[in-house]
Amino acid sequence: SKATVSVLNCSFDPRATSDRTKMTDAAVVSTEPVPDQAPANDDKTVEQTIPKYVAVVFGLMQFLMLLFFGLFVEYSDDLAVVNETVKDFELSRLYPFFQDVHVMVFIGFGFLMTFAHRYSMSAVGFNFLVAAQMLQWTILSNGFWHRAFKGHGAFDKKIAMTVADLVTADFGAATVLISMGAMLGKVGPVQLLLMGFFEILLYSINESIGVIEYQAVDMGGSMYVHMFGAFFGCACSFMYMPASKVAELDKHGKASGSRTTDTFAMIGTLFLWMFWPSFNGALATGAARNRVVINTVLAISSSCTATFLVSYVCRGKLSMVDVQNATLAGGVAVGSSSDLVIDAWPAMMVGSIAGIVSCLGYIYLQPALEKYVGLHDTCGVLNLHGIPGMIGAIGGAISAAAEDGSTLYGSDISSVFPARANGARSASKQAGMQTACMFTTLGISISGGLLVGLFLKYANYDAPRNSEEVFEDSKYWEIEGESDEETELVPQKEHEVLEGAV
């Protein structure tokens, strides 16, 4: 029989979710076959597993982007060669932050999802594809719905594109990638693109309602990006496939992590952690940007230390599941109020609370939701983005209610809350609008996710269909250098040594 590798002292941690089990300690070689072992990558079995027309879908979507941009988009007058000094200043103000957000979207999110030891290529590769497609679609969708809600004719004239649109396009792409985290390993690339297509439409509607109708302030996207993406993705996953079915298909534990893939996932965590202040502050200006950067650094640092503490206390050892994810929760939670908090300790408190809540979510809430509700959330986006996003939304409402004066930080209150200019809106009403925005986001994201999940259940053209295809790179990618004789990591019971091990 072919040689395999078993692992000493590795087991499924009963306090962790089934998808994120870690394989640890030294490996020993066994010449005995292992029952229920993940199938080796056999070129004969995976050849032509994806219908040829899937490539047609890729081409059609990009053709539509070309067509729509040609018909409906033009460069803004700000990009004209009129006042180069002003234009250069605008570019120098926005582009460094855009570049940081771009790194977060393509490297941070991409590598964070590479933990699954048989699905890491698909995670980072599909992240690349989906993000590139969705940032284009976001420019079109945002431009259309903003015009519609402002009462301008949506098609009266073309969308005037600026450098700022690149930042907001990345925000839209990030929203879809968050949802992708809940669906990871269970759907194919065409399904992800279809999910993103409908999600961006709903995302733009929700953001237009919040920004234009409610005039709610959400500087770091706690509601518009994180909450929306997480609840949409979880609702989509819930409707698409129950947790019991995922467990049945993933009987080989291919969604679990290994030392190598968890180390690669930490690359994504560190990129996100370092650049999160840019994500929250990309569209801020003046002194507000200074507050956003400082508050975000303090909050995300606090969530990091809180995560290490809670993980160690609750699990007895540190878990890479917690460290890869909950350490980032402070950046999510401080987003809505990142330009409002003026002292260091409130930002640190928000970050600490978010880190604790997020870590406890990974340890206790996620397994409970899988067991009792049937929600399978591959990456645990509800714990990293959904719940911390709600904390941020509540924090934003409290901050709005607390600022009842006509000035804030030495400037007119309208510099932070435009709706309160000239006393047009009271502090309590602004807080009410912030709260209304939170519930609107929940309603649109959950209902939309359920509908799209139902659609994907039948639009399963390239979906994994059995235990050999779920969480498996070889269904979609050419795997170079592998053969039937390649050794594999197989999770075993604690302290169990395979019979015949050397």
Write the layout of secondary structure elements.
Layout: E1 4-7, E2 27-30, H1 43-46, H2 53-72, E3 73-75, H3 84-112, H4 120-149, E4 159-161, H5 163-183, H6 189-213, H7 222-240, H8 243-249, H9 259-281, H10 286-315, H11 320-325, H12 329-333, H13 344-373, H14 381-402, E5 407-408, E6 411-412, H15 427-458, E7 489-490
Parallel strand pairs: 1-7, 3-4
Antiparallel strand pairs: 1-2, 5-6
Helix pairs in contact: 2-4, 3-4, 3-5, 3-9, 4-5, 4-6, 5-6, 5-7, 6-7, 6-15, 7-14, 7-15, 9-10, 10-13, 13-14, 14-15
Describe this structure in words.
By secondary structure, the chain is mainly α. The protein has 15 helices and seven strands. A hairpin with a 2-residue loop joins strand 5 and strand 6. Helix 6 packs antiparallel against helix 7, helix 6 packs antiparallel against helix 15 and helix 9 runs antiparallel to helix 10. The longest helix has 32 residues. The two termini are 15 Å apart.
Q: In one word, what is the shape?
A: globular
Strand order of the largest sheet: 2-1-7
Structural class comes to mainly alpha
| Cα gyration radius (Å) | 23 Å
Beta-strand residue percentage: under 5%
The string of secondary-structure elements, in order, is: EEHHEHHEHHHHHHHHHHEEHE
Helix content: 55-70%
Q: Count of DSSP E strands?
A: 7
Number of helices: 15
Describe the biggest sheet?
Answer: 3 strands, mixed
Main traits of this protein?
502 residues, mainly alpha, two-stranded parallel ribbon, disordered N terminus
Report a brief summary of the structure:
The protein is mainly alpha-helical and 502 residues long. It has helices at residues 43-46, 53-72, 84-112, 120-149, 163-183, 189-213, 222-240, 243-249, 259-281, 286-315, 320-325, 329-333, 344-373, 381-402, 427-458, and strands at 4-7, 27-30, 73-75, 159-161, 407-408, 411-412, 489-490.
